[in-house]
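Margin note: ligand = iron/sulfur cluster.
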Amino acid sequence: MRERVLSGMRPSGKLHLGHLHGALLNWAELQKNFDCFYFVADWHAMTTEYANTGNIKQDSFDMVVDWLSVGLDPKKSTIFVQSELPEHAELHLLLSMITPLSWLERCPTYKEQLREIKTRDIHTYGFLGYPVLQAADILIYKANKVPVGEDQLPHLELTREIARRFNSFYGKILTEPKAILTKSSKTPGSDGRKMSKSYNNCIYLSDTPEDISKKISSYITDPARIHPTDKGHPDICPIFALHKIYSENVKEIEDLCKKGEIGCVKCKKMLAEKIIKSLEPVHKKQKELKKNPAVINDILKNGREKAGKFAAQTISEVKKAVKLINSD
Ligand code: TRP
Ligand code: SF4
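Resulting structure:
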C-alpha cells in the first residue's frame, strides 16, 4: 500500500509561477511515489469571500485547468472539489466540538490575517474555524503526508493536535499526518516582492509569449545598475532569482553581472526566452482542455466518487467511535 498524500488550494483562478514553483511541481512529483489526493478548497475561499462568492465556481474551474496543464494526472491522482464532499463538513462539525477556542485564537495565521485583511470583515465563526475545516480535509482521508508551504505548518500542527485529542476521547481512529515542507524556491514578482495576485506582479501560466517578454522587461533589477557596465549585485535582483530556477548557466550570469559585463536588457531577454520555452507544453495542454471543458467535469466527477468512498468510510468509523451510531 502506498502512503497517502493530500493537499488543497483555495480557488484563485488562473495560476502563476509562484504556484508552480511553490506547490504544483512538487505535487506532480509526489504522484510518482504516493497515492495523491488534490482538491479545490472552495469552502475555505468562502471564509474570507463570503460576501462575494460569484467567482468561486469559475475560479475553481480555471485552477483545475492549470493543475492539469502542469502535470497533475487524473490517472494517478484523485482530483476533486471540497464542497462536493459533505463529509468534510460533517467531520468539521464533530471536530469543532472538541477543539478548544484557545488553540484557534493563538494560531499565528489567524492573528496575522486579522491584522492584515482590512477590506473584508473576517471576525466570523467560519474564519476562526478555518484550521478545523482544514483538519477535517486531511483527517477524513487519513492522509499520511501533506505537502504545504511554511505558512501552513501551524495548521498542520493543529491538525495533529486535534487528531490526538479525538483519539484520546474516542479511540484510535484518526491518523496524525506529517507535513512535507515544500522547499521555497523563491519566485519573486515584477516588484521584487513575493509573486501574488493582490500585488499585481505575476506571470501567469496562461500568459502569452508577448505578455511574458513585456512583464520580464518591466521587472525591477539591482538599482545600482544604471549603465550596462556598472557592477551589479545579482543576489538582490529578482531576475537573477528567476535565472536560478530557469537557467543552467547561473554561475556565468552571476559573474557577468558582478563584473558589469552584461546589461540587464540582455539578461532579461535570456530569461524571458527560457520561461516562454518552458511554458510551451503548458499552453498546449491548456488549449486542449479549454476546447473540451467536459473533460474537466468528468475528472472532477470521478474524483468526487473516488474520494467519496474514503470519506464515507472514515465518517462511519468516526460516528461509531463517538457513539452516534451503533457499531456492528
Ligand atoms: N489552507 C491551505 C492554503 O491556504 C489550503 C488547504 C485547505 C489545505 N485545506 C487543506 C492544504 C488541506 C492542505 C491540506 O494553502
Ligand atoms: Fe539582474 Fe541580470 Fe541586471 Fe544583474 S544583469 S542586475 S542579474 S537583470
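The chain has a mean pLDDT of 96.
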